[in-house]
Design brief:
The structure holds three protein chains of three kinds.
Chain A: H1 2-22, H2 26-46, H3 50-74
Helix pairs in contact in A: 1-2, 2-3
Chain B: H1 7-16, H2 24-30, H3 39-42, H4 45-50, H5 52-76, H6 86-103, H7 108-116, H8 118-139, H9 148-163, H10 167-189, H11 198-221, H12 227-250, H13 274-297
Chain C: H1 2-26, H2 30-55, H3 59-90, H4 94-100
Helix pairs in contact in C: 1-2, 2-3
The chains are: A mainly alpha, B mainly alpha, C mainly alpha.
Chain lengths: ~80, ~300, ~100
């Protein structure tokens, strides 16, 4: 049962990693990367290392994507912001 | 320049770029031109690229040399996947068998990264500090690297920040941010007893600070978290870490001479230096996370 | 008996999650889509956790699950509200788009 869930999660992980590199839109790439980090956090939890799961969820899905969005806003990429 | 100045004033003027202490131009004019043997031209990249035969020979020779070194190293490695390899049993068994006695931490991971391999963690904390210092160098608001247009944009952002009404986000931030920060502190303080530790708890505290800053704006944040507190906490944490660990490495890595009391494994005040080191790492990571956010949004902490 | 009630709650939560995923992919406009997504976040997760609370016998495990529900019911709607506010603030012709779809 647990291995089945792990296989499904790993397949999702590979799909997310490929999707990040193949999308043209940077906004979509950042959101897919957030999904990648969340799946990775669940996999760390299944591998019995909850400390890494906490760090991955807080850094990968939270702080990292906030920093990416701020960078996209700084370079005037997002629609609706100044000159975007 | 005619007046007499002290050496210190000369030095200060030189740092500000107002006067020249050693007049390099005069020296260049008076210098006799020496006949130079241009060794560099013979071995420059253009010369090698132009000479096709030498280029091919050199590329093949360097590749063969590196392949030889790598293969000779791989030849000496133990067989891959063999359960009798030393890396697969000796280190792990040592950690699992005598970890509690030697470090006093019931969480083996904390005992490993903060006692056996404390220099490694020190390097990681230094890497984080260097990263945030590079961001400060690049993005901090400064009159020299800020154009008038950016200043105007920043003023508009400040106006928007102060005058925008967001009551739902503010109430949510007021309720949630203290709980998130409290949970982070719990994770840091229980680092040697349960899964967690400095890095995990620090990121949680940083996320709580970011939530509070995005709800209440930068100005309210600056009442208790300025650039001065940021540098003080970061540098103080690194120095405390360095002092603790250099003491224990100086005394032979076994705390010879003065034994640090290990306490009873499982209690909150136990495990020697692991608890203060966890607090140092957690403070550094939390400040780094919030520093990244503040520098990316406003260019100022 | 307790397992049956718990199973009903958990299956209801999974169905709500499926509906919200279907809605996220089916709708075309942002405000409709965040409505569907927030449904899964609050009602789906809430009923699943209530099912788990009924299934577990330990009191403190149930209290922790209750805290999880509280956190999600505080944070989820705030995040949804922020996204909707940003959409309305930045998209100038949102009224026409709402009328179109």
């Amino acid at each position: 049962m647990s291995t089945g869930i792990q296989i499904i999660l790993l397949v999702f992980l590979i799909v997310c990693a490929l999707a990040v590199s193949f999308t043209k839109n940077l906004f979509i790439a950042v959101i897919v990367f957030m999904g990648y980090s969340s799946i990775m956090a669940v996999i760390w939890l299944l591998l019995e290392s909850p400390d890494l799961a906490i760090t991955e969820a807080a850094v990968g899905a939270g702080v990292d994507s906030v920093l990416f969005f701020l960078t996209l806003k700084k370079v005037h990429y997002l629609k609706g912001t100044r000159e975007g | 320049m005619g007046e007499k100045k002290s050496v210190w004033e000369h030095l200060k003027a030189w740092v500000d770029g107002e006067e020249v202490i050693l007049d390099a131009d005069k020296y260049i004019v008076n210098r006799s031109k020496r006949e130079k043997k241009n060794w560099r031209r013979n071995f420059s990249m253009e010369y090698i690229r132009g000479n096709v035969k030498l280029y091919r020979f050199l590329s093949i020779a360097i590749s063969v040399l590196f392949i030889g070194i790598m293969l000779s190293v791989v030849n000496d490695l133990p067989e891959f996947g063999n359960p009798a390899n030393p890396a697969d049993n000796e280190v792990m068994e040592r950690y699992l068998e005598s970890g509690i006695e030697e470090t006093g931490a019931t969480n083996f991971v904390a005992g490993m990264i903060l006692d056996y391999r404390a220099f490694d963690t020190f390097g990681e904390a230094n890497v984080l500090f260097l990263a945030v210092m590079c961001v400060v160098l690049l993005l901090k608001k400064d009159q020299k690297n800020y154009s008038a247009k950016e200043e105007q944009e920043n003023r508009e952002d400040d106006f928007f920040d102060e005058n925008e009404k967001r009551p739902i986000l503010q109430i949510g931030g007021k309720l949630l941010a203290p709980l998130i920060i409290l949970y982070g502190i719990y994770v840091i303080l229980n680092g040697h007893l349960s899964p967690g530790g400095g890095f995990s708890g620090g990121t949680i505290i940083g996320a709580g600070l970011i939530l509070y800053a995005s709800a209440y704006g930068q100005k309210k944040m600056q009442t208790f978290f300025t650039f001065r507190t940021f540098t003080l906490i970061c540098v103080g944490g690194l120095l405390t870490y360095c002092a603790c660990k250099s003491y224990s490495f100086f005394t032979g890595a076994n705390h010879v001479g003065f034994e640090i009391p290990k306490g009873i494994p499982g209690h909150i005040l136990s495990a020697g230096f692991i608890l203060p080191l966890n607090i140092c790492v957690g403070l550094i990571v939390a400040c780094t996370m919030y520093g990244f956010y503040a520098l990316f949004t406003k260019g100022d902490i | 008996m307790r397992e049956i009630i718990a199973a009903i709650f958990i299956i209801m939560g999974i169905i709500v999650f499926l509906l919200s995923m279907f809605g996220v992919f089916r709708f075309k406009y942002v405000l409709n889509r965040i409505h569907a997504a927030a449904l899964g976040d609050t009602l789906g997760l809430g009923s699943i956790v209530v099912g788990l609370m009924i299934l577990g016998t330990d009191f403190f495990a149930g209290a922790k699950l209750f805290l999880i529900i509280l956190f999600f019911w505080l944070s989820g709607p705030i995040a949804t509200h922020s996204i909707a506010k940003v959409e309305i603030l930045t998209n100038k012709n949102y009224e026409e788009r709402v009328r179109d779809k």
